[in-house]
Amino acid sequence: MLIGLPGTGKTTTGRRLAGRLRVPFADSDDLVEQRAGRSVRAIFERDGEAGFRDAEAEVIAAALSAFDGVLALGGGAIVAEQTRAALAVSGAPVVLLRAELSTLAVRVGRAQDRPLLTGDPVGRLAGLAAARQPLYESVATAVIDTDRRSAKRVAADIDATLIALAWRP
Ligand code: S3P
């Protein structure tokens, strides 16, 4: 599992890592969109953040029991107590990707597709970082720095960390 704020590279790195490990890759935002038949933004607009979080927690619970591969979780997924508990019992390594706010701001750009960042991406990222840091740390098995590192390099770092944890797919 990959967790971290928007812009830490969970999706890009996760795809690469899955390629290295020769396992499938999934992203909880994609799973939510497939199930709902609507975009994340459309779900936020019609059902609010609470509606999105419910759908997100459900697809993650299903993926944790049925999906064998690299799963990237949406940045706010760990806000749900149910998801933090499910991660803890899954036994799978939970890798927290981190980066400086300035790096995240560049990566998310104008954040059109991320409803929680619309308007003031940097200010909103700072608020999310402060509120979520303890939650991320409470579920993370390992923390990987992504500042000034390519997705290829980060995927290699995660792979090495998984080996150190004696975890292989
Ligand atoms: C969110 C992050 C997004 C997406 C949604 C909410 C968040 O995923 O789930 O816009 O609360 O941080 P990414 O972390 O993949 O951008």
Could you characterize what this model shows?
Helix 1 crosses helix 7. The termini are close together. Helices cover 59% and strands 9% of the residues. A three-stranded parallel beta sheet has the order 1-4-5, covered by helices on one side. It has a two-stranded parallel ribbon with strand order 2-3. The chain is mainly α. It has helices at 10-21, 28-36, 40-66, 81-90, 101-108, 121-139, 151-164; strands at residues 2-3, 25-27, 70-72, 95-98, 142-145. Residues 6, 10-11, 29, 40, 74-76, 114-116, 128 line the site of shikimate-3-phosphate.
Chart the SSEs and their pairings.
Layout: E1 2-3, H1 10-21, E2 25-27, H2 28-36, H3 40-66, E3 70-72, H4 81-90, E4 95-98, H5 101-108, H6 121-139, E5 142-145, H7 151-164
Parallel strand pairs: 1-4, 2-3, 4-5
Helix pairs in contact: 1-7, 2-3, 3-4, 5-6
Q: Give the overall form.
A: globular
Q: Proportion of β residues?
A: 5-15%
Mean pLDDT: 94
Structural class: mainly alpha
Please compute the radius of gyration using only Cα atoms. Answer: 15 Å
What is the helix fraction of residues, given as a range?
A: 55-70%
Q: What is the overall number of helices?
A: 7
- Say how many strands there are: 5
Small molecules bound = shikimate-3-phosphate
Order of helices and strands: EHEHHEHEHHEH
Strand order of the largest sheet: 1-4-5
Low-confidence stretches: none
